[in-house]
Amino acid sequence: MKTFVTLASAALLLLTTASAPHRPPTADAPCRGQIHPNPGFERGTTGWTAGPRILVLGDTARPAHTGRAYATFAGLDVNRTDLLRTDVTVPANCDLTVRFWVRTLTTETSRGDYLNVGLAVTGIPPKTRFSLAFDGGSQWREHTMATGTATTERTATVSFLASETAGNGVTAFDVDDVTFTLS
User: How do the residues of the chain divide into helix, strand and coil, expressed in percent and rounded to 5?
Assistant: First the structure.
């Protein structure tokens, strides 16, 4: 009887351990996906630092690229600059690709209004990646920039700085769908 109980216990142990396959624990891949909480401005300027004249619009006459909202540097035909910026954390060994859409509506007739788009990454001097002029076009256009990889975690700052001069006409720069994708 003692042998039977020992054999039954061994069989039960073998059955129990053999029935559950061994899988290593899975970790979230840190270099995947979209990481900004509000890339399309659907929640206003949440997740962004916006100047006082940055507006978030949902206008059927000037529809967003996708969704219902977009940020605009509303043209006022005055000497002014406005800044829209955000920071994201880029994990070690990851590349960050930033894609954004811009549309320009203007009555300007000479070069004077600009939208400078910058990307600053920890340890690398800030750099203007795009300088978009008043004549950028009334259709949405996509632009892309990337950080490259590094062995340490970094902070990436994306900034949109609009500059308008008085007396040349009114220019509005619309920005939408600023995606921050890790790979």
Answer: 10, 45, 45
64 closest CA partner among 160, 171, 177: 177
Mean of per-residue pLDDT scores for the chain: 83
Q: Of 117, 82, 116, give the one whose Cα is nearest residue 99.
A: 117
Sign of CA pseudo-dihedral 87, 88, 93, 98: negative
The CA angle 42-44-49, to the nearest 5 degrees, is 125
Separation CA 118–CA 85 (nearest Å): 9
4 DSSP assignment? H
Whole-prediction pTM: 0.81
Query: Measuring CA to CA, how many Å separate 93 from each of 6, 26, 89, 104, 182?
Result: 53, 18, 12, 36, 10
DSSP state at residue 16: H
Residue 123: per-residue pLDDT: 83
Report the C-alpha gap between 145 and 127 in whole angstroms: 11
Check residue 3 and report its DSSP letter. H
Candidates 168, 163, 171; CA nearest to 137 is 171
